[in-house]
């Protein structure tokens, strides 16, 4: 059952037809629940833009994005934000953490925004697994890039969201830690039935995914094995 | 958290607040009356005011209560919808309810996923079992064949021949063991599909006994059948026959030479009874409840052949069909195993 | 149902984000303090003013009792005091008048008062107590001074008390004395004991003395109710309840003393407060705007993680509230202190002498806090909405606040710095106009105020009060609430000749005055009759028509005044020689009931009959209603007018029924070399009498200086504040602009523009701004300033319009300097990050 699907997604910049930049040019894809999808492509191919669309961070020029039966851009800004808060965990390439909160507060931020109770046992597990115990009261400015990334991953896992969208999450990590983080992600996703969509240029990581979608110049060139019956969304 | 002590606490709080409220009201009106001088009109007005305020307060309180019950009702409905997979009550609202609903649905979803995993695993096991059965058949057949071939070699010493016999016997036992185990696992994983229909049990009984006459004859055991030709039950012919076979086989096994086995079948109100009574060694009382367990062998049964799954299998087969098997015995005198099958 | 309890995290985020930018916090706090300060001081001053007026009124009335029952008997007093609505009461008995020679011009009443009356009558003993023994008396300090008695208890004093049937001469011992303002109350007071009253007045029947009008031995009971609302009704109710029928009196200090009577007076206050709030709003709005723009990524990230627009709006709101709460107490305290300090200055504005009273009403603080909160609330609102609408993708990709319109401008010479600068200016027309408007407005306002203040002219002011060097006026003649006791003839011929003999006095120009009840003639009727037919009929006019008379002020002026006549002439021509003949009259316009309407009943050439002068005159000219202001009593009767004759007409033999005209004033023209000595001499001459007041040019000048100083302080202060606000706004806009374009700058630098070139371009932009502003102010600004300032200055008595060019000249260098420094420092603030970091931020 598809948890994520896009239909004719387009993102154009600029009004003048000669100078328009087509970041996404008619992308339609589906992702099944529990799938681990890797998105690869050269720089500027539109990967990040696609990821942003999937998470409702940015509005497309045309097209629909449907997540778990909800059409994202038909929702109000308020509802979209709440959707993100509860159902999506983000890991960006950089600038993930709120600079004025310490590590622990950053991790629990989405939970607190929802006014929910914090599952300490689970969080401790995650923090342990990512090796952050000693740093939970530090401010982001006192952490290395790799540590910041791990905090971001912890935050993405904190609410046990249905979808995890990651943009080069292992970009700042050394290969050993990358592997560990990936294993952790896969474990979590299996345990909690999560879908992972990850942008990466690391081939070995991409290989561990269930499916690789390759994007070039705003088009999907391979990996879009959308089942025939997925036309109606 | 709402505990009983909390409820008491809340009630106390409520009474404190109402007392305070009342005090304030009365205090204020009294002061006003005092300051402006006593006048009947003012007194009446104050009384009306007091009553109005109290009334409004009570009304508001009632409304609040109603709101709380209403909220609990909504919560209830939300949970119901989640359990039965109906449409969600809220969709990304900035409310406690919505947050809760999302959490609940998420956990239900995870549970469902687990279910699916388990189902997938079960499928894998099914395949494993069929694989095993396939895979072992061949080597086993080869073992038997080769041992027979060796047995046909002329000029074999009696010792060798005895050894060969052992090999053959053990191989047969192995085969039988594997087949039983496969049957067992099939039963346990629910792979067996029984086709139950209402039919007379006579045929079933006859089929079950057909293989045993020889063996019974060897031990000089007399088998009598007393079956009501009209007695019928809803059962799977093949499997019930096998179960019955196990029962009778046990009876034959554990009865000495010259004993007798009597099989009766009759229909009752709801069940049809098929009873197998023997004059065998019997089962001690302490062991009666254990005989249907997997791989159970009675203390007395040590000399006899068997692994101890016959009764287990029989019980499984019958219970899947909605029936039951009971056992009664007198050690030294004989045992009586009764099979109940549903009539409809 | 049941809202999410995520308030805590939002508050926590708000407060933590406050800690990040202490500078911004300080700026907002200062803005809040400034706004609150200004509002509080205005409120304080207004309320203080109100209170002062109230107090002064009450002191004039003599008591702060709400009302009184007049001429009540002791039995009636017993009954009345029992009434439940009477919270406090005091009884005074009128004993008589002091007839000592020294009190001929300043009446002193003798009363017996009780402790309550003394308390409510502002009698605060410097020493001593109320009289008890028969020969004890309490006097005020000025009465003691007049009697030549030392200020001490136990002093012996001889008083002549007139109890109507006879005058009692008796020696008294001062049992106590108190401070009183001679000029405030209508009459002075002396207090005798009950014993004395028993001894001397018991024979007098109160009913008789009431009938005769002397009121000796009548008692008045003053009462205090719970509040000052509907005093008259309360008094009547008491009378009705007790069945007593006596005249009542209401303390008019309570009914006439509030500012709220005249709503028009409120308008300037409201306008000022509005301006303050507007400026505060602009400041705070700008600061928050910049802050939101600077922290776009932060808010974008929060939104991406899951903060709803509403939560982000709340964050900004909470930040503004916290800063408001921090700044509030300082603003309130400082504002109150400043308001209190400025109040005495305001008091000098009013025509009557006022004692400063201070109000510490909590409403000042509550009101100011509320208005300031309103300002902050509105100011933080729009930035809050902006933050709410930030697209979460901004966290990941920073290109500044999205510009909806991209200008595709193609130009051949695009690469030149100053051209780029010029184009940049017009990128956002809206912002440009807004900034220019705010800046120009401030400058124009500043210049208007500056010009008006610069136009303050002492001489013009002075000339409204006196034409010569020293003027001696007979104050007793100034009628406004009936006549004051005194000698209207004090300025006699003899006295005038004494004045003339003072060394240095070149001439003595006198003005004579006669209050004429003049019969209406056809000309007057012709004007007034139609007026009376309007609906609703104006009662005063109706009564005048019934009585068939109007009230005129007839003035006889000495030749020295003739020079001042011409400037007030509206119709006709003034010929001094003809006028001196005595056959002509100069008629001023009449003040009508409606404010600022004047009509003349007569035209040059008309013949007017003055019955009380015994002859008719020809109207030579019609003048302004306030013509020869310095010569008049400065009060004008409605529907009446002033008429001017040569003094000979009023000093000659007049019909027997006519009362003798009074000598109103004598203006001395003094040789400049002998100015001081002559002034001294005149002053000593006039010192002997109470009625005569000597005022020299110097005296007026000093008064005016004080007045001008106040005006200048307030005016310059206000204009400074306005200019400051305009400048701050400008700074804000520049800083915002630079910050928002930081990515663009980084880009430019990365493609090869050196730092120096970039700086140059920014400076060019700043200079263009200044140029544009100057263009506006020097054209439109000058035009507005000229017209507005001219109309203001032209309308007041003490300003002569003088265009001040200073502000416009100052604009250019000041703005230029500011633009230069601000642009540079904001750019420097940005370029602290390295180029890559700045570019990276935009990835």
UniProtKB/TrEMBL annotation, chain A:
InterPro entries: AAA+_ATPase, ABC_transporter-like_ATP-bd, ABC_transporter-like_CS, MacB-like_ATP-bd, P-loop_NTPase. CDD domains: ABC_MJ0796_LolCDE_FtsE. GO terms for molecular function: ATP binding; ATP hydrolysis activity; transmembrane transporter activity. SMART domains: AAA. Residues 4-233 form the ABC transporter domain. Gene3D superfamilies: P-loop containing nucleotide triphosphate hydrolases. Keywords: ATP-binding, Nucleotide-binding, Transport. It comes from the Bacteria. One of its GO terms (cellular component) is membrane protein complex. Belongs to the ABC transporter superfamily. This is Putative ABC transport system ATP-binding protein. The lineage of its organism: Bacteria, Bacillati, Bacillota, Bacilli, Bacillales.
TrEMBL record, chain B:
Its EC number is 2.7.13.3. Residues 131-344 form the Histidine kinase domain. GO terms for cellular component: plasma membrane. Its main location: membrane. It is found in: Cell membrane. It catalyses: ATP + protein L-histidine = ADP + protein N-phospho-L-histidine. This is histidine kinase. It comes from Paenibacillus typhae. The lineage of its organism: Bacteria, Bacillati, Bacillota, Bacilli, Bacillales.
TrEMBL record, chain C:
GO terms for cellular component: plasma membrane. Pfam families: FtsX. InterPro entries: ABC3_permease_C, Macrolide_Exporter_MacB. It is found in: Cell membrane. One of its GO terms (molecular function) is transmembrane transporter activity. Its main location: membrane. Keywords: Cell membrane, Membrane, Transmembrane, Transmembrane helix. It is a multi-pass membrane protein. Residues 271-391, 718-833 form the ABC3 transporter permease C-terminal domain. It comes from the Bacteria. The chain crosses the membrane at residues 26-49, 266-288, 322-342, 362-380, 432-456, 713-740, 761-785, 805-830. Belongs to the ABC-4 integral membrane protein family. This is Putative ABC transport system permease protein.
């Amino acid at each position: 059952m598809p948890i994520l699907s896009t239909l004719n997604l387009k993102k154009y910049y600029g009004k003048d037809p000669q100078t328009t930049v087509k970041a996404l040019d008619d992308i339609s894809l589906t992702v099944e629940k529990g799938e681990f999808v890797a998105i690869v492509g050269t720089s500027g191919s539109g990967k990040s833009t696609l990821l942003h669309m999937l998470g409702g961070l940015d509005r497309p020029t045309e097209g629909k994005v449907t997540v778990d039966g909800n059409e994202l851009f038909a929702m109000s800004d308020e509802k979209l934000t709440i959707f993100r808060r509860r159902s999506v965990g983000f890991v960006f390439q950089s600038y993930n953490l709120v600079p004025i909160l310490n590590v622990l507060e950053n991790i629990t931020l989405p939970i607190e925004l929802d006014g929910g109770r914090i599952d300490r046992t689970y969080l401790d597990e995650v923090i342990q697994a990512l090796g952050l115990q000693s740093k939970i009261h530090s401010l982001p400015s006192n952490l290395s890039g790799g540590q910041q990334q791990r905090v971001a991953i912890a935050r993405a896992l904190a609410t046990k969201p249905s979808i995890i969208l990651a943009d080069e999450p292992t970009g700042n990590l050394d290969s050993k830690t990358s592997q560990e983080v990936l294993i952790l992600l896969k474990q979590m996703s299996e345990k909690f039935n999560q879908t992972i969509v990850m942008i990466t240029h690391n081939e070995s990581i991409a290989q561990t995914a269930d499916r690789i979608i390759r994007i070039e110049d705003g088009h999907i060139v391979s990996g879009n094995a959308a089942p025939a019956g997925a036309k109606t969304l | 958290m709402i505990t009983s002590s909390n409820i008491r606490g809340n009630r106390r709080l409520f009474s404190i607040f109402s007392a305070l409220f009342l005090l304030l009201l009365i205090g204020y009106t009294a002061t006003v009356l005092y300051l402006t001088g006593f006048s009947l009109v003012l007194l009446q007005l104050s009384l009306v005011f007091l009553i109005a305020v109290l009334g409004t307060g009570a009304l508001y309180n009632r409304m609040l209560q109603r709101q709380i019950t209403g909220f609990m009702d909504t919560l209830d409905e939300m949970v119901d919808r989640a359990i039965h997979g109906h449409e969600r009550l809220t969709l990304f609202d900035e409310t406690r309810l919505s947050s809760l609903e999302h959490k609940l649905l998420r956990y239900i979803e995870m549970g469902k996923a687990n279910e699916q995993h388990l189902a997938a695993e079960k499928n894998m096991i099914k395949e494993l079992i069929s694989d095993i059965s396939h895979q072992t058949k061949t080597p086993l057949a080869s073992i038997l064949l080769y041992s027979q071939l060796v047995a046909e070699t002329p000029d074999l010493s009696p010792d060798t021949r005895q050894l060969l016999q052992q090999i053959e016997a053990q191989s047969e036992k192995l085969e039988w063991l594997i087949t039983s185990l496969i049957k067992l696992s099939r039963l346990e994983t629910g792979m067996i599909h029984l086709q139950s229909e209402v039919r007379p049990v006579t045929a079933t009984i006859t089929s079950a006994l057909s293989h045993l006459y020889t063996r019974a004859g060897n031990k000089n055991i007399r088998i009598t059948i007393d079956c009501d030709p009209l007695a019928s039950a809803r059962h799977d012919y093949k499997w019930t026959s096998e179960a019955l076979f196990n029962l009778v086989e046990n009876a034959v096994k554990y009865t000495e030479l010259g004993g007798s086995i009597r099989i009766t079948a009759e229909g009752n109100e709801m069940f049809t009874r098929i009873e197998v009574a023997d004059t065998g060694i019997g089962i001690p009382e302490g062991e009666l409840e254990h005989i249907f367990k997997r791989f159970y062998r009675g203390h007395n049964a040590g000399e006899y052949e068997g692994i101890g799954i016959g009764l287990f299998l029989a019980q499984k087969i019958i219970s899947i069909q909605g029936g039951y098997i009971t056992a009664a015995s007198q050690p030294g005198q004989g045992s009586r195993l009764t099979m109940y099958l549903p009539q409809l | 149902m049941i809202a999410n309890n995520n308030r805590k995290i939002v508050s926590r985020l708000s407060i933590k984000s406050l800690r990040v930018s202490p500078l911004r916090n300080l700026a907002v706090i200062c803005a809040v303090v400034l706004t609150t300060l200004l509002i509080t001081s205005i409120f304080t001053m207004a309320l203080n003013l109100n209170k002062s007026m109230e107090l002064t009124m009450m002191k004039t009335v003599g008591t702060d009792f709400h009302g009184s029952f007049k001429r009540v008997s002791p039995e009636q007093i017993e009954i009345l005091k029992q009434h439940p609505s009477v919270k406090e009461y005091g009884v005074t008995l009128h004993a008589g008048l002091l007839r000592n020679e020294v009190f001929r011009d300043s009446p002193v009443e003798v009363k017996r008062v009780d402790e309550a009356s003394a308390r409510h009558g502002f009698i605060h003993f410097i020493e001593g107590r109320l009289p008890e023994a028969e020969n004890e008396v309490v006097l005020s300090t000025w009465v003691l001074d007049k009697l030549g008695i030392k200020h001490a208890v136990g002093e012996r004093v001889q008083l002549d008390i007139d109890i109507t049937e006879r005058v009692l001469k008796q020696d008294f011992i001062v049992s106590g004395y108190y401070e009183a303002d001679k000029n405030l109350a209508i009459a002075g007071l002396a207090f005798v004991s009950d014993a004395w009253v028993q001894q001397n007045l018991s024979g007098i029947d109160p009913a008789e003395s009431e009938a005769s009008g002397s009121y000796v031995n009548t008692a008045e009971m003053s009462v205090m109710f719970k509040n000052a609302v509907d005093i008259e009704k309360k008094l009547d109710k008491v009378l009705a309840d007790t069945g007593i029928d006596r005249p009542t009196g209401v303390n008019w200090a309570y009914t006439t003393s509030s500012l709220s009577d005249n709503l028009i007076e409120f308008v300037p206050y409201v306008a000022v407060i509005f301006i303050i709030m507007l400026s505060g709003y602009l400041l705070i709005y700008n600061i928050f705007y910049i802050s939101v723009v600077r922290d776009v990524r932060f808010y974008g990230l929060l939104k991406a993680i899951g903060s709803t627009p509403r939560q982000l709006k709340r964050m900004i709101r909470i930040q503004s509230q916290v800063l408001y709460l921090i700044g509030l107490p300082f603003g309130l305290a400082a504002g109150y202190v400043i308001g209190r300090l400025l109040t005495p200055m305001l008091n000098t504005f009013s025509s009557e002498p006022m004692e400063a009273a201070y109000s510490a009403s909590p409403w000042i603080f509550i009101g100011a806090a509320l208005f300031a909160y309103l300002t902050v609330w509105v100011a933080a609102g729009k930035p809050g909405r902006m933050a709410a609408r930030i697209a979460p993708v901004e966290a990941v990709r920073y290109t500044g606040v999205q510009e909806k319109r991209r200008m595709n401008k193609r130009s051949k010479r695009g690469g030149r710095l100053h051209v780029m600068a010029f184009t940049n200016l017009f990128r956002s027309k809206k912002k440009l106009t807004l900034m220019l408007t705010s800046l120009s407005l401030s400058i124009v306002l500043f210049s208007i105020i500056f010009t008006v203040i610069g136009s303050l002219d002492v001489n013009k002011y002075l000339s409204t009060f006196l034409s010569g060097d020293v003027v001696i006026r007979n104050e007793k003649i100034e009628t406004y609430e009936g006549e004051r006791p005194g000698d209207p003839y004090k300025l006699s011929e003899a006295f005038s000749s004494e004045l003339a003999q003072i060394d240095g006095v070149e001439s003595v120009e006198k003005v004579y005055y006669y209050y004429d009840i003049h019969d209406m003639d056809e000309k007057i009727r012709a004007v007034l009759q139609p007026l009376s037919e309007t609906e609703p009929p104006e009662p005063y006019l109706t009564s005048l028509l019934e009585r068939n008379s109007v009230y005129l002020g007839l003035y006889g002026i000495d030749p020295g005044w003739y020079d001042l006549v011409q400037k007030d002439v509206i119709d006709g021509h003034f010929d001094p020689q003809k006028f001196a003949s005595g056959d002509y009259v100069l008629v001023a316009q009449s003040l009508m009931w409606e404010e600022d309407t004047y009509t003349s009943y007569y035209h040059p050439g008309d013949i007017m009959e003055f019955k009380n002068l015994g002859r008719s005159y020809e109207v030579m000219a019609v003048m302004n209603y306030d013509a020869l202001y310095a010569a008049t009593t400065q009060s004008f009767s409605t529907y009446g007018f002033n008429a001017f004759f040569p003094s000979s007409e009023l000093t000659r033999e007049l019909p027997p029924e006519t009362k003798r005209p009074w000598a109103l004033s004598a203006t001395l023209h003094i040789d400049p070399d002998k100015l001081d000595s002559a002034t001294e001499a005149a002053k000593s001459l006039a010192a002997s009498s109470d009625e005569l007041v000597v005022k020299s040019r110097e005296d007026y000048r000093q008064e005016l200086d004080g007045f001008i100083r106040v005006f200048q302080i307030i005016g310059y202060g206000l204009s400074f504040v306005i200019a400051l606000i305009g400048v701050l706004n400008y700074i804000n806009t520049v800083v915002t602009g630079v910050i928002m374009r930081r990515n663009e700058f980084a880009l430019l630098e990365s493609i090869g523009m050196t730092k120096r070139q970039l700086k140059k371009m920014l400076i060019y932009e700043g200079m263009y701004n200044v140029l544009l502003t100057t263009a506006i102010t020097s054209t439109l600004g000058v035009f507005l300033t000229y017209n507005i300032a001219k109309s203001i200055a032209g309308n007041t008595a003490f300003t002569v319009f003088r265009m001040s060019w200073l502000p416009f000249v100052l604009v250019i260098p000041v703005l230029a300097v500011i633009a230069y420094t601000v642009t540079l420092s904001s750019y420097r603030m940005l370029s602290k990050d390295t180029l890559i970091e700045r570019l990276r931020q935009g990835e």
